[in-house]
Sequence to fold (446 residues):
Amino acid sequence: MALTGIAIFKMLPKTNCKECGFPTCLAFAMALASGKAELAKCPYVSEEAKEQLAEASAPPIRPVKLGPKDAVKTIGGETVMFRHEKTFFNPTLIAGLLTTAMSDAEVSAKLDTFMKMQFERVGLNLRPEMFAIQDVDGDAGKFAALVKKVMEGSDALIMLCSDKPEILKAGAEVAKDRRPILYAATAANADAMGALAKELDLPLVAKADGYDALAELTTKLTGMGLKDLLLDSGARKLKQVFQDNIVFRRAALVPKFRPFGFPVVNCVAEMTNDPMLQTVYAATCIAKYGGIVVLSDLQPDSVFPLLLQRLNIYTDPQKPMIVTQGIYPLNNPDENSLIAVTTNFALTYFIVSGEIEGCKVPTWLLIKDTEGLSVMTAWAAGKFSGDDVGMFVKKSGITEKAKTRSLIIPGYAAAISGDLEEELPDWKILIGPREASHIPAFLKSL
Fold:
């Protein structure tokens, strides 16, 4: 049974040091009891208290770690229903499907596509992470050979799919270095699957139709000593999958119903054969608590929008993405090259720099710290005013790198041009385009 805030408070050091981020130990204890804080934040809690508080401080949804030690991915571990309450931390993993019915050439092509499917966005490398490898003919040797091919041809995380423990064991022995997921334990094979997962110390998916049956199955598996479980409700209609994902999350968080306190697997590949619908279904599952979504095929036109959606959901809404203030040389500029300035909002920087690099015009791009605000927002907030930008240009060191005395400002900040001319009397202020897509033509015209 979870401990109350007062019970937790009695076990804390009561120093009120504030190092945990809370004003008092009592406030920290109350947050810990409600799942809004982590025990590790207290630097002075005793080992004895840690053991006693383990249950109270454990995340309501168990975090499950996958992959090799040097590249671990975590799913689950979330503590809230909505991201405005607290940031979501562990993004949904996007998986493709491989089966033993596929030819070597087809598998090789999919692996090659997977390894090349990497997108640069706001300074981050976005890509899918996993393959679900499915046995369709009951041949353990063939299954193990396919797993080996995936291991050698990619760095993908792996989920091994079969209803036969001996098949999964053959694949798991090949993929053991990446800590694969075993899929799936059902009421019919729970004893054998549970024993295999315990023997190999691997995560196991529990699959059953209906909430009662699934709760009974996970209770049985945890009773066998298994901790790293995942849930599959067996639903393959979007409405039911959507409902199940919400029920699992709410049950784990609100009444802290332990049998549903695990990440969820959504097999979108089994919901429809239409690639476009699969993308829509996957987007729904990413938005509503899916830990892993499995598509029948990973293609850039479907995966890229899913990666962007995932990035937006799992980015801290209270912490702007920023780049460091400074001078950024683009296209090997020299002392006679153009000079432009913009804000340090990451999306602004990467869009603007991308357009400049694409047009091949050598440019010095000055990035001013506006606390991660976009151009219009920074201007409205007084963080991108003529006086501030002028002072920044003077102190930036750009005059030591370039003889040019023309400064291009964003079109949306045209109102600062007058103040900027007063602050920089020896400079010519040029008002650039409002839209980034017009930057290449503007720069070439200069």
